[in-house]
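FORM 7B: Structural annotation worksheet

SECTION A. Query
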Amino acid sequence: MTPPATPADTQLSAPDQPPLSAAILLRAYEQSHEAILVTSGDNLIVAANGAFCRLSGYTAAELIGHNPRMLAAGRTSPEFYATMWSALRSKDFWEGEIWNKRKDGTTYPRWLKIAVLRNADGSVQSHVANFTDISASKEVAERLAYLAYHDPLTNLPNRLAFESQLAQSLRICERENHQLALMLIDLDNFKNINDTLGHQVGDELLQKVALRLRECVRSSDLVARIGGDEFVVVLPEIESPLTAARVASKIQSQLADNYRIGEHVLYATPSIGISLFPIDGADPGTLLRNADTAMYHAKSAGRNNHQFYTARMNEAAGERLQMENELRQAISAIAPGHSEFSVHFQPQIQTATGRVIGLEALLRWNSPSFGSVPPLRFITIAEETGLIQPLGDWVIWETCRLIRNFKQHGIENIRIAINISAQQLRHENLLLLVRGALACYDLAPEDIEFEVTESTAMENPETTLSILDQLSAMGILLAIDDFGTGYSSLAYLKHLPIQRLKLDRSFVKDIETDANDAAICTATIALGHSLGLELVAEGVETDMQRAFLARLGCDTLQGFLYSKPMPFDETLAYLKAEKVSG
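SECTION B. Predicted structure
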């Protein structure tokens, strides 16, 4: 096979060099890495080099004499070809992207350049086409375009794609007078899982969450990951807010079920904030901001629930942000002898004797702007922002300092309970910090007790057990606080090195009038004793509650019946009046 002869008036070599021989031109044609196809004036294939045969899968014999349309993939419109032929007639050249089909039926993109060679009389002698396979570069471009709009971990649309698609959905809803719901979903306690078990486990959890979210909604609904453990779901064209509530309840149920990742069984409940178009906002930014406000309201309401946005939440969100900023400043400004924080103490009374056998250390914050802030408010913010770690560490040091002060005033044999947060329990420096605080103030491990909430003990059982075992080995007494409010069982708790169970105040409050609360207290005290555990009842406020718990055999009582939480000086006076000493 040979390419058509070069027209005599076409100069293929430099003016001061001899003309290139036909043999050199043929060799260049055959050995070129670019695919070359030559057609006659009436557009029938007359030559195809080796590179083109390898690209197309056809032999030269299978191609010669046929129209190049045999190579078309069928993805190009007639208008496209009309434009191409118009350019060739007027300019003798055209280039562009086109799709071809190989002999085996597979299609591929190519960059095509066509030059027209004419005879001396101007008629078309041949068309010379150069093909470049751009499959690889096109795949790269498509992959880059995909990554620009998708989260690489979950393959869900990312924030950029979410904002674009939401804006489009809002335009449609506005034009057709439809409602739309936007849900912002945040995973409760995900940071603890990530920090404790590593990012690989956290990433697998996020992938499983993404799959469950997609299963909860229609194919026409938008599910996206906009960062960290935050997801959004957009429900266009809803009939009423009730539709969004039903979907949110379904998401809660699906996401709250356990996840098995390797050897771990994990839980990641969702807090969901919902904003509605058009009543809560008409643009993506406003809807997302209001859903975020509602989501924080869901967290403050106990997590694992959904909340709709209301205008009054904005005021609460602004106050929360201000409180978070002041909390940060207060923690950073802590210095010896100067702090907005203080530790108060509430006595624990032995039921049988009525004598004080211990104290619980309780953190208080007196803010210059907010005054005395209820612990439930600022501790919740501290936990959500990670501030609970430095704050909790300060409580350990300050409590140990005050225990030394009690001893210097003759108060001995009083064990003081300190609450430990989930973040502290998972932190690698906890054991070192405890040893340092005890040594600094010349205290024995028996002088303190650590209280861990039931939900904290259940979050990551393997890690929790390891840390608690080490604390117990040091001689520190351990207690489960708020028992009965979580989802653990005494069968599990028997594996933990704990010595005390604290009945939550919610059961004690109505123990005299609510048969269910009375039954829970009765069963818990009996089963706890069968496991060799001491039972402490919180929230004891009346003599009838005291008498009821005494009949059940509850070992220790704590509550306003005996004393409210008191600062150090009042506690010292209380203990001296009770003649508590060595």
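SECTION C. Observations
The longest helix spans residues 312-332. Residues 193 and 202 are 6 Å apart (CA to CA).

SECTION D. Sign-off
Analyst initials: ____
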